[in-house]
Amino acid sequence: MNRNARxxxxxxxxxxxxxxxxxxxxxALTAASSGAGGLERHFVWxxxxxxxxxxxxxxxxxxxxLRLLQRHRQGRFGARLLLKLAGIFALVGLLPGLxxxxxxxxxxxxxxxxxxxxxxxxxLDAGLALGKGTLDAQLSQLAAQTLxxxxxxxxxxxxxxxxxxxxLRTQLDVRExxxxxxxxxxxxxxxxxxxxxxxxxxxxxxLRQARGAHVTxxxxxxxEGAASGSDARVRALALxxxxxxxxxxxxxxxxxxxQAVPPQMAAxxxxxxxxxxxxxxxxxxxxxxxxxxxxxxxxxxxxxxxAAVLLAGxxxxxxxxxxxxxxxxxxxxxxxxxxxxxxxxxHDELGGLTRSFADMTAQLADARGAVQxxxxxxxxxxxxxxxxxxxxxxxxxxFDRDGRIDTVNPGATRILRLPLSVYRGRPIxxxxxxxxxxxxxxxxxxxxxxGPEAGERDHWQEAYELxxxxxxxxxxxxxxxxLPGDARLMVFDDITEVVSAQRVAAWSExxxxxxxxxxNPLTPIQLSAERLQHKLHAKLAGSDAALLxxxxxxxxxxxxxxxxxxxxxxxxxxxxxxxxxxxxLNALVGEVLALYGHEQEQGRLQLQLADALPPVLGDAxxxxxxxxxxxxNALDAVAEQADGRVSVSTSAVLDADGRLRTVRLCVLxxxxxxxxxxxxxxxxxxxxxxxxGTGLGLAVVKKIADEHRAAxxxxxxxxxxxxxxxxxGARVSLSFxxxxxxIAPAPAAAVPGGSVxxx
Length: 759
Known about the structure:
Blueprint (H helix, E strand, L loop, with lengths): L2 H32 L8 H31 L5 H37 L2 H38 L6 H11 L3 E6 L4 E6 L12 H10 L1 E6 L12 E7 L13 E8 L2 H22 L1 H49 L14 H43 L3 E5 L5 E4 L1 H7 L18 H16 L9 E8 L5 E11 L3 E8 L1 H41 L6 H31 L7 E3 L1 H9 L3 H6 L2 E4 L7 E3 L1 H18 L8 E9 L5 E10 L6 H5 L16 H11 L3 E6 L13 E8 L22
Parallel strand pairs: 12-14
Antiparallel strand pairs: 1-2, 1-5, 3-4, 4-5, 6-7, 6-10, 8-9, 9-10, 11-13, 14-15, 15-17, 16-17
Helix pairs in contact: 1-2, 1-8, 2-3, 2-8, 3-8, 4-7, 8-9, 12-13, 14-16, 16-18
């Protein structure tokens, strides 16, 4: 038996107990009104027991109502429905009860009023007066007869004999006749029944009345204590006037006559007297009686209504429980909770409905589990794909069917150095710096969609030169593919350094071949020219000798120039491998700058060396050539300026935790700087801004830096953040890795104007 069933049985038992007590209370009232005192003495405690039961039911109903209101205030699911059903059931029990109560109240009130009608009171008064008059007449008649007999007895001279007294009794037609002494003693008596006892002695009060009035009479046996009036009698006592009549002396004498009242008259008199007495008592307690009956009726109504309310709540809970289970399950399913739902244990339609709902919920849970597993697998695949995209060095951009940017990986932002993620959901043409590039890519997609070229089955590939404002030109290798749903995929790589490396490799091969092909005939040419001059110098004179000398000098000078060019080609193409060893960069720089003492004295060359600079791993011979090339290039850049200045500095770059990151050598000048096209290819051979330069200086610097795993950066000062607009000057920096590192980093790509240096 569950909790609700126990609650229902408890309430039902309490209601039955209350009804039984009410019936006992009504029975007590009925017994009390009929005159039987068997249950009348229990009236008070029965009343208070009923009041206690009513109070207990009131407390239970109040507690149940407060519980429902609390559930409703807390927003508990089903509280409104339970409250509504309890109200409906209570109303169904209350309205008929009120109707019955109203009718019963009117009936009780009018009935009690009819009991005490004026005519009934008059009839009882007339009956009582009639009975009293009849008895008074009998009493007066007996008193007169007794007085007359006493006088007649007094006129007789002599002693009263028993025979004379019996004859007198017969004449008077009384039941008993006696001669009484002055103190009330029976002197002589006679009776109709010979076995009857001696008559009862008259009392002193009756004797005094007889002395004063010569005669007195009274009725006995009709008082309130008489049961049926069968012993009712009339007694008359008369004084004998002549005191000479005596049996044994001269005291006063009285004649006592006792006559029986007819039993029917006595019973009627007692009935009228009892009815009148009860009527008077009830008339005095009429309001109390009305309150008792109405209180009993009200108590019965309260018990019935409270029991109906409790049963309404309990039975309503039983009725609404499967509906609440179903409704709560629907609410939980709507909220996404598909856990197994409880089933109402019954075989009716509501129980079947809850079982069907539980089965449906289980099926939904299984379906959602399958969907969640599929979504988890899809999300895992997507996460794996996103991780791959995030770690790709290539840039990936996905466009939707309308050409808007859908997905951008960090590689695209890193290569283009533009915040493409900000433009997600917008066409790439809206990126100001990429308008031309976006148009070219769109045209290539359109050409691919119209008809793929030979070898383009699933994607196309194209190289584009991208020139962004204020930055060097980039070479991008772009691949495009069409995806389902008219989506487009663009993958691109920055191959600027690859192209630059290819050019450097090509120039190295050219330099090697030129050095091989040109250097061999130079010495014979020079020797042949000198031999001609030696042979012909003595044979020619005047202008011819001068022409010969000038021609031979020109040939020798050009041969020397070609030899120098061939040596530079050879050095560039066959630069020996660096022999790395710890060295003091400050000492090396000071040794090289000692060759430029004159420029330092003029203030055109300044030296700023950091204190306690850590040693670097390097080849002293090659690094001297690097410093010499950088300083000479800077001095050549400011040679035409009166205020030209060149600054050479060293510094140590530290991490946030204070550890050494790189050792940097920086050469700064305030010359005209580099042009945009020269800056983009500054480290390639034969790229120079000098009229007499070979263009191999920075190329050699780049090659030596790669051997030392150092990063080279060249930048115009006006292009740096915070640089003055229209200002001049350039800076070349060489950053060496920390020699304490266990594994030296790979050589960084030297991009002029870029930020690829490790410092």
